[in-house]
Amino acid sequence: MLKVNNLRAGIEEKEILKGINLEIKAGEVHAIMGPNGSGKSTLSSVIAGKEEYEVLDGDILLNGESILEMDPEERAHEGVFLSFQYPVEIPGVTVTNFIKTAINESRKARGLEDMPASDMLKMIREKSELLEIDRKFLSRSLNEGFSGGEKKRNEIFQMAMLEPKLSILDETDSGLDIDALRIVANGVNKLRSEDNAVLVITHYQRLLEYIVPDVVHVLVDGKIVKTGGKELALELEEKGYDWIKAELA
Amino acid sequence: MSLKDKLVSSHIVFQESLDPDSPIYDVRNEAIKHFEEAGFPTKKDEAWKYTSLNKIIKPDYSIFPNGEAGLDYKDVKRYFLHSLDTYKIVFIDGVFSSHLSETTHAGIDVCTMRSALTKSKYKAVIDVYFNKIAPKESLISLNTAFAKEGAYINIPKNKVADKPIEIIHFSTGNEAATMLQPRNLVVAGENAEVQIIERHQSLTENPVLTNSVTEIFADKRANVDYYKIQNDTPEASLIDNTYVDQYDDTIVSVHTFSLGGKLTRNNLNFYQKGEHIDSILKGVTIIGEKQHVDHNTLVHHAQPNCESHQDYKGIYDDNSTGVFNGKVYVDKIAQKTNAYQSNNNILVDDKATINSKPQLEIFADDVRCSHGCTIGQLDESALFYLRSRGIPKKEARALLMYAFANTVLESVKIPQLKERITKQIANKLGVNVGFAL
Ligand SMILES: Nc1ncnc2c1ncn2[C@@H]1O[C@H](COP(=O)(O)OP(=O)(O)OP(=O)(O)O)[C@@H](O)[C@H]1O
Ligand SMILES: [Mg+2]
């Protein structure tokens, strides 16, 4: 599904990603953990196509095709979805209008007609129930004045609506209370299938108890320095990152 | 001959054609004298620092356009709020079109200024209200000197206009260049309520210059809700002069939608002459190419316990230019005033410019006044967020611009009008995004 080959990227003079290699197959869940500032969000943004970052070397392939030349919207149309660590507030656009526009633009890109309003409503109802989102919420301006947890839940609602192939969840767990974490994780699990893949970025083992990863990677200073099974997450939670850094030194 | 000379010499002929017993015969004479002395404003005048009329007054305008052109309703239907039942006062090249209009005298007067100025039964109202608040400025005097036609709306005490009133000025371009000077008067008596929509529409690419004056009086507890749609052709310019007098417990709001035209200048002044008044001034400007829109507002708080709310949003593309000059005066006795003003602008193209100048003069000490002005580009992180959800760049930009302007649209109280303007804005932004409004 996703293949990242020797990816180097940065901003202005600063190199942030220093040669990342990563392969995620359809049906898999991978987790990336790593200290603050190691480049996790940068990697997510580069995969989603944020133009601010410059790719210096390497490639990103989605189902065998390079997506580096694609605009963010084209990547979305190909099935890439990023749940933002810090979702942006957009006053004046309601959640509902936003999601309708997003869905219909993606359909347009695939040569499809707009989704009939009744189907849209039905889908919105189903997905908001899945994530236990109050309907009133949907007529509010996108993320404006949402609590940290509400923003994250809204990200996963969008994911559920857009049905992506590759979902990158950048610290979706931070800000969620214990119940919300379970609801959101449960929502993500329901969306999993043999043809899609999930990349979970987190600092905590707790999320991974719900969304169980097949592979865990450790990102330190722009490089993946260790890869293992789900037990690696437990080990990191216990011991922190110092032992890995020591191994590297 | 310069336009000024032409106007001054034409006035003699004009005055001869009028009834010397007219209640405003002398007023017109004085006005032309004042215009002759003062001339058109220039950039040397502080209030016209960023707006030059030089190019606008060049064409050889017909001052008394031949008003014989007829229009079929079906050809101009789209300029009306056709989905809504309204009274209509319609002019074609400055001449009243009874064919396209729907006036009334049933309890309220919705008719022409010509009737009001010539029929004796209106004399009392004209004597009290005509040319009483418009300040002595050259363009006002020019309009007064030629005042003859326009809309006359009188909603007496305790009456509510049963439907909105549309005032539409068409210019057909049957003259190479046309100058129009409509004169409107709106009088809302105690507890009266009225909604008015005004629009100036040129139907060709021939130059049109409109110098319009509107005076609005709101007596105690009256409610006046006024909308100006400025979406004219690239060769049409408009100088709109609107003056509002408010008495105790009135609410008057003026929304201005400036979406097209060559040069648009809005002089909008509110004078608060009672207590517990609310004055609402809102505007959305979306222009491009070499268009120019200038909002020159004044709210004069002269009594205690009043409010004013100014919210102007501007989106400027290409080489367009915007001006916002918002003045708030708070007199010493106007304690407990709440005056808010905000002017937010997005420059889509770095060749576009905006001059934003708030002027607050506050002489009372117990007041709440705030003003804010921002000039920026579209928020890149918001743009990325929308694009990452599959919304293409152009649509994402349009969505953000729409959202930016939306705070002003929210307060439009006529749903059909709101829908209409929303569509015009979407058109203007060049997209058909699927957001329901
Ligand atoms: N737009 C930017 N401009 C300047 N520096 C940046 C920018 N984006 C990222 N960086 C820097 O790159 C490094 C990696 O940042 P990134 O946000 O990817 O870290 P992270 O691993 O997601 O951290 P956290 O766990 O705190 O979320 C940091 O040092 C950060 O300051
Ligand atoms: Mg991060």
> How do the helices and strands follow one another from N- to C-terminus of chain B?
HHHEEEHHHEEEEEEEEEEEEEEEEEHHH
Low-confidence stretches of chain A: none
Judging from the principal axes of the Cα atoms, what is the shape of chain B? globular
**Rounded average pLDDT of chain B:** 94
Instruction: Work out the strand percent of chain A.
Output: 25-35%
Low-confidence stretches of chain B: none
Which ligands occur here? adenosine-5'-triphosphate, magnesium ion
Highest-level CATH class of chain A: Alpha Beta
Oligomer: heterodimer
**C-alpha Rg of chain A, in Å?**
18 Å
Using only C-alpha atoms, the radius of gyration of chain B works out to: 21 Å
Task: Tell me the overall shape of chain A.
Answer: globular
Count of beta strands of chain B: 20
Total DSSP helices of chain B: 9
Helix content of chain B: 10-25%
Say which CATH homologous superfamily of chain A is assigned.
P-loop containing nucleotide triphosphate hydrolases
Q: How many strands, which pairing sense, and closed or not: the largest β-sheet of chain A?
A: 6 strands, mixed
Topology:
The complex is a heterodimer of chains A (249) and B (437).
Chain A: E1 2-11, E2 14-24, E3 29-33, H1 40-48, E4 54-62, E5 65-66, H2 72-77, E6 80-83, E7 90-94, H3 95-109, H4 117-130, E8 141-142, H5 148-162, E9 166-170, H6 178-191, E10 197-201, H7 205-210, E11 215-220, E12 223-228, H8 231-239, H9 242-248
Parallel strand pairs in A: 3-10, 3-11, 6-9, 9-10
Antiparallel strand pairs in A: 1-2, 1-4, 4-5, 7-8, 11-12
Chain B: H1 3-16, H2 25-38, H3 73-76, E1 87-92, E2 95-96, E3 109-112, H4 113-118, H5 123-129, H6 138-145, E4 151-155, E5 165-171, E6 178-180, E7 183-188, E8 193-202, E9 208-218, E10 223-231, E11 236-246, E12 251-260, E13 263-272, E14 278-287, E15 292-301, E16 307-316, E17 321-330, E18 338-347, E19 353-362, E20 368-376, H7 380-387, H8 393-409, H9 415-428
Parallel strand pairs in B: 1-5, 4-7, 5-8, 6-9, 7-9, 8-10, 9-11, 10-12, 11-13, 12-14, 13-15, 14-16, 15-17, 16-18, 17-19, 18-20
Antiparallel strand pairs in B: 1-2, 3-4
Helix pairs in contact in B: 1-2, 2-6, 7-8
The structure holds adenosine-5'-triphosphate (ATP) and magnesium ion (MG).
